[in-house]
Amino acid sequence: MPGDRRLEDEALGDALTAFARRVAGDGVSVSYRDGVAEVRGAVASATRARALADLIGGHDGVARVVSAVRIIAGEAPAEHVHEVT
User: Domains (ranges, CATH) in the chain?
Assistant: First the structure.
């Protein structure tokens, strides 16, 4: 049922947000829908943004990661898409 799928997606998004916050701090969140995880928020470096996207991409059910993470240390914004093959 579509409602069940939406609830499952929301639950996975919540779990991924909790994981992301343990890794990168409270300034990040993750939404999830149909295999795509979108990471938002701010981290201290482009390296952390890439690492966060790679870690999120390693979770079961995540086929693609779209990172909309801002860098707060003055570096250029990180635009990183992680495809799981």
Answer: 2-83 (3.30.1340.30)
